[in-house]
Write a structure and sequence with these properties.
Shape: elongated
Strand order of the largest sheet: 3-2-1-5-4
Structural class: alpha+beta
Number of domains: 2
Bound molecules: zinc ion
Helix content: 55-70%
Order of helices and strands: EEHEHHHHHHHEEHEEHHHH
Strand content: 5-15%
Length: 336
């Protein structure tokens, strides 16, 4: 069903968020609308009177969450309405337009938590502007909406998508929260959970169901996408990423092999220099001045060789260039 984001008579029933998890088929179904209409839909009536009804792969709700890093929900989705409740009538249309435009854009992005929050804030505002006592109404609006918008604003991607993080870091998740189990047909299936206010119980419930089914949300090491895995050890989302990971590993291995080769050349050459200098130290034909010149030439060699080694490592010159250069350096000792 369409929803118009503008000033209108509020919907008489409150809007709820309903989640159905099918662990066997690995699906999630989410419905958003008035409780009565959702009940009818789940009993098989197909009337177009609810706002959202979609089935997606298990875990989608959590995995598609995007952190509201700029706190736009507060700035554009909540504050304009809060200010409208406190300002003169002639200022209200502009504030309402800012707020409704933002909520509409979130509603249209198709993400269920955004749709739910947009509808709840819009309806919350429309109900709050009815009573005469505006300040009191604004307070009630603030309290009711904080649970809705805070859920979207204060969660990082990592926390919402990873059950372990969710329970570890969150102060919110340690609050007592309630959720209703709902059997609209009076039969075991479908088993729904229904949220009337905060989205937190839904996320809590979802995580605990996944964990008890032995499923974990993991982030793919290669493409960065989140995916459901049966073990925390799994780090790759698909066959494609497994192949890609194999290629990355091979490239790293080859690079290390090349690095080992020119590193060995360098070490051998150093040993060669040391041997020559050692012999000279024992020889009666080499003067102390010559010896000290040889030692400083060696230090000089090491400095330049290390610079050249770095440039090979960074790909600025080739291994062959390095090896061709290094092999003739020790002959300088004989010139001293
Ligand atoms: Zn991947």
């Amino acid at each position: 069903m369409e929803y118009t984001f503008n000033r209108h008579e509020p919907i008489p029933d409150s809007i709820v968020f309903v989640l159905i998890l099918d662990m066997k088929r690995k699906k999630e179904r989410i419905l958003i609308g008035s409780e009565n209409y959702i009940e009818l839909r789940l009993r098989g009536f197909e009337d177009d009177n609810i706002f959202y009804d979609r089935t997606a792969p298990l875990g989608s709700l959590l995995m598609n969450f995007h952190q509201d890093t700029d706190r736009t929900w507060n700035e554009f989705g909540f504050m304009p309405f809060w200010n409208a409740l406190h300002s003169n009538r002639w200022k209200q249309p502009e504030l309402e337009k800012t707020g409704f435009d933002f909520l509409r854009s979130r509603f249209e992005n198709g993400y269920p938590l955004d749709i739910y929050a947009a509808l709840r804030i819009s309806e919350g505002y429309l109900k709050a502007r009815l009573p005469r006592d505006r300040n009191r109404a604004a307070e009630i609006f603030n309290i009711e909406m904080s649970e809705i918008k805070d859920g979207l604003m204060d969660w990082t991607d990592e926390r919402i998508k990873t059950p372990k993080k969710f329970y570890e870091d969150s102060t919110l998740s340690k609050k007592a929260i309630k959720i209703d189990l709902w059997y609209p047909n009076g039969t075991p299936e479908p088993e729904c959970v229904i949220a009337h206010d905060s989205i937190l119980p839904i996320i809590n419930f979802y995580h605990s169901r996944l964990l008890s089914a032995g499923l974990n949300i993991r982030k793919c090491k290669v493409c960065g996408k989140y995916f459901l895995a049966e073990s925390l050890k799994y780090e790759l989302c698909s066959e494609k990423c497994r192949k890609e990971q194999g290629k990355i590993k091979k490239r790293e291995f080859d690079a290390r092999a090349v690095e080992n080769s020119y590193d060995r050349t360098y070490k051998n050459e150093c040993q060669h220099w040391r041997n020559i200098i050692h012999k000279a130290e024992k020889s009666a034909e080499v003067s102390p001045e010559q010896l000290s010149k040889m030692k400083s030439a060696f230090n000089n060699f090491k400095t330049v060789a290390l610079e050249k080694k770095t440039s090979v490592k960074n790909g600025q010159s080739s291994t062959k260039e390095f090896e061709d250069w290094i092999i003739v350096q020790s002959s300088r000792l004989y010139e001293i």
